[in-house]
Design goal:
By secondary structure, this protein is α/β, with parallel strands linked by helices. It contains 13 helices and 5 strands. α2 links the parallel β3 and β4.
Length: 254
């Protein structure tokens, strides 16, 4: 069965649970990852309600949330960070001024993945999301998302799956699934037009596909920056040993 759940106005929504985890257990169900929810239709919102989502970890910066606000109903716990303030997000600045050749985009993405683990706003939501997963009910849904659901979201999921004891192969498979979960033939022209309208720039299709997709080399850069996941979660994110153990235990199906 596909991990991808199709919506009308939400892209890259899928499960990131039910992988083999530590000690023969499986990662619990009810764990979701996604792109932003600004375009959710009424039908999408009804479908989301069936997933019993109670916690949303929104990795986006304040300016992104202001530009494309979500419209969640009552009763959800929303995790987000205001640390970056309303400064222009790096990917938006790159679209405005960066080298948008395929090589230029790839270099930017590799640098992005070296930066993501160090950004204080990301660290704040990473830590809050993991702490929620230490106690989150197995009958409740949890979703983490950013703008496209691939970079900041991908790194959070890689951290969570690592703590759950998922194999490196499964962690990378989950990360790379963006490349097949998203309909790029439809998305590329839409984003190309948005870039033209917003920044007055025309970008070649090959570079667009690099910018909108993911590559194992990118996640390699993040893991090289992080080193030991447990040390990163402890030292950079501030989780105590008992919290880390609780995340590990609660991520596995009982």
């Amino acid at each position: 069965m596909s991990r991808v759940i199709e919506f009308e106005g939400i892209r890259n929504f899928r499960h990131f649970g039910d992988y083999a985890g530590r000690d023969g257990a499986r990662v619990r169900a009810g764990l979701y990852r996604s792109g932003h929810f600004h375009g959710a239709s009424d039908s999408d919102k009804a479908k989301l309600e069936t997933l019993n989502i109670s916690v949303v970890a929104d990795m986006r910066r304040p300016r992104e949330r202001e530009n494309e606000p979500s419209s969640w109903g009552e009763g959800l716990r929303i995790l987000e960070s205001d640390i970056a303030g309303h400064a222009e997000p790096p990917h938006m600045r790159f679209l405005r001024t960066g080298d948008m050749s395929a090589k230029g985009v790839r270099d930017f993405m590799r640098a992005t993945y070296r930066r993501l683990p160090r950004e204080k706003g990301n660290q704040e939501v990473f830590a809050a999301g993991l702490r929620e997963l230490a106690t989150h009910g197995s009958d409740e849904g949890f979703v983490v998302h950013c703008a496209a659901g691939k970079d900041r979201t991908g790194l959070f999921c890689a951290l969570a799956l690592s703590l759950a004891g998922a194999s490196r192969e499964d962690i990378y498979d989950d990360y790379l699934m963006t490349n097949t979960a998203v309909d790029y033939d439809t998305l590329v022209p839409l984003i190309h037009k948005r870039i033209e309208d917003t920044y007055g720039r025309s970008v070649e299709e090959a570079a667009m596909r690099v910018f909108l997709g993911v590559d194992a080399d990118y996640l390699d850069e993040a893991f090289d920056e992080i080193g030991s996941v447990e040390s990163y979660v402890s030292d950079a994110l501030g989780l105590k040993p008992d919290e880390i153990n609780a995340v590990r235990a609660n991520l596995l199906a009982r």
